Amino acid sequence: MSTHKSKALIIRVYEEGMNRKDMRIIYEVFAPDYVAHFPGVPPIRGIDAAKQLIGTFLAVFPDIQFKIEDQVAEGDKVATRWTARGTHRGEFRGFPPKVKGIPPSGKQVSFTATDIYRIAGGRIMEEWNTLEQLDVLHQIGALPAPE
Q1: What span, in angstroms and rounded, lies between the C-alpha atoms of 24 and 33?
Q2: Could you tell me which residues come within 8 angstroms of residue 14 by beta carbon, excluding any fewer than 6 positions away?
Q3: CB-count burial class (<10 Å; 0-12, 13-18, 19+) for 70
Q4: What is the Cα–Cα distance from 111 to 6, expressed in whole angstroms?
Q5: Strands 77-87 and 108-120
Q6: Among 11, 18, 48, 71, which is least packed, fewest CB within 10 Å?
Q7: C-beta separation of 142 from 102 below 8 A
Q8: What percentage of residues in the chain have a pLDDT greater than 70?
Q9: Domains in the chain, please, with CATH?
Q10: Is the pLDDT score of 70 beyond 90?
Q11: Helix (H, G, I), strand (E, B), or coil: what is residue 86?
């Protein structure tokens, strides 16, 4: 798959899946044995686990919208820097969920991440996620703002 097509595949996940809340896209573009890596936790394995994780996150921020800021692709990998904006309306337990639940604050949040995706056979095989969770926790009032 060309790097242009690989980048377009990732854009499709954000525009059609995340922004439109259409989880059917996961079964079209993620490999059945997809693996997601998040700092400090064991890998998340499998397409159903990915769907559950993403669905939980979208429920916490139901109006969230993602914007792709930059993409760089080489070989079988695509690095994607994105910004998200939404309202904290559900219990936030981290991404992936691992902290004590933080009740909805109703606060608007804006945060970024730079994720790396590995593509093979036209599908997303693996992802390394760098969501700025501390930034989210500060914005929803769960942690004091840095000085």
Answers
A1: 16
A2: 66, 68, 80, 82
A3: exposed
A4: 24
A5: antiparallel
A6: 48
A7: yes
A8: 96
A9: 3-139 (3.10.450.50)
A10: yes
A11: strand
pLDDT at 19 over 80: yes
| Count of CB atoms situated within 10 Å of the CB of 144 | 8
Question: For 43, which DSSP code?
Answer: P
Helix H, strand E, coil C: the string for 54-73 is HHHHHHHCCCCEEEEEEEEE
Q: Each residue of 99-119: pLDDT tens digit?
A: 678 899 999 999 999 999 999
- Report the C-alpha gap between 112 and 69 in whole angstroms: 9
Per residue in 42-63, pLDDT (tens digit) is 899 999 998 888 888 899 999 9
Tokens of 81: 């820097």
Looking at residue 77, its pLDDT comes to 98
Q: What is the edge-to-edge ordering of all strands in the sheet holding 30-37? A: 44-45, 30-37, 123-128, 108-120, 77-87, 65-74
